[in-house]
Amino acid sequence: MNLRFLPITLAISAAFAGSAQAQNLMSLFDTARGFDATYKAAQSQYTANVSKADQAKAALLPTMGLTANVNKTDVELIAAAQTVIAQSKTATLSASQPLYRPANIATYQQGQRQLDLASVQLKAAEQDLMVRLSQAYFEVLISRESLDFVKAQKVAVAEQLAAAKRNFEVGTSTITDTREAQARYDLVLAQEIAADNDLRIKRLALNQLVGLNNIEPRSLANNAKLTAPAAQSIDEWVQQSSEFNPSVIQSRAALDIAKLEIAKAEAGHKPTLDLIAGYTPTRYKNGKGINSSQIDANTNSVTLAFNMPLFAGFSTQNRIKETVALEEKARADLDAAERSVAQATRTAFFGLLSGIGQVNALKAAEDSSQSALDANKLGYQVGVRINIDVLNSQSQLFQTKRDLAKARYDVLLGQLKLRQAAGTLTEADLASINALLNP
After folding, report:
1. d(CA 126, CA 143)
2. For residue 76, which phi and psi values (nearest 5 degrees)?
3. N or C: which end of the chain has fewer CB within 10 A?
4. Strand ranges for 231-313 from DSSP E
5. Band of the pLDDT at 18, cuts 50, 70, 90?
6. Whole-number average pLDDT of the chain
7. In terms of pLDDT, which residue wins out, 426 or 167?
């Protein structure tokens, strides 16, 4: 079997295998956004946060209320030996507009920061979905290609086993060659069972993520070019992560909210001023009450309500101390987030560079392994090599092919993870990966 044409053979066989329809990353991403529970929970949380931010506006807007009551009074006049019944109806329409309330202003500003935070959290959830989907997608491809390579290795070992049996029958080899080939064939059968089970599990994970069955991912094109970032650009990636990474942005927003919480606490020492207006119509039965002063009336009022807190049992002072400490905590959390994100970005950057290097090295190793196998086969035919040499060369070649296939998909995933760490991952980046797959 000529192993140089193995990728083409496997691709052709995979194209005609089963009835599952091949699907690319972009189509599955659109499906996953409507099915993945984690992302849908993030969307609901975003909607809730938007509504919560709008609630903060209420503290700056006027409030109105309507109250009404009906009162019936029975008065017994002892001297006149009679009972007078009076009935009154009163309604009050009141409105209040805050004029100066520093705590309400701080609450409103916190709401706006919460709104920004909600957008960042949703963006982070979308980026996380891209990476999770891509990882599940590539794991299916890695498992599928590993199974294909194991099957091809089984065919090659079976041919070597048949050759060893023929040579033993004609007396040109020993029974040892046959037993070694049989042992290697049995080992490959066990590897095939394990690879088939691994592929089944990886398919289930992908199906669960997007809510579809019989997904057949499109494999990476053989001529796909995998690019690595320039080694000197690591500082640029770290700088981007400090500006755009969702974790850092959330920590900055938390610090801003903590500062505003201090302003709210300090407002406990400040006065408040409200404008209050009211309209109260009062109506009596037959236009009069019990005495002459109780007659139908309409009352209008406009009030400026000023309140100056003087002493609250040291509650305000202790609240300020609490919020100052929480601000220091938020600042420390921001420092920790920036350091963690910078480290993650560097790790992803160097991991991507290493992955590109591994792909290039494994390509060279694949060619070398193929040449070694050809040489061992020829040596076995002329009697200068034994059967175990050929079997070992076959095993090395197929292991190299599996490692190369995995390394290529790891590079694609590494590109997405680097952009996720930098906070710049978008659908366009996913589309560029998708373009490298077989059409």
Report:
1. 26
2. -95, 115
3. C
4. 272-284, 297-307
5. very low
6. 88
7. 426
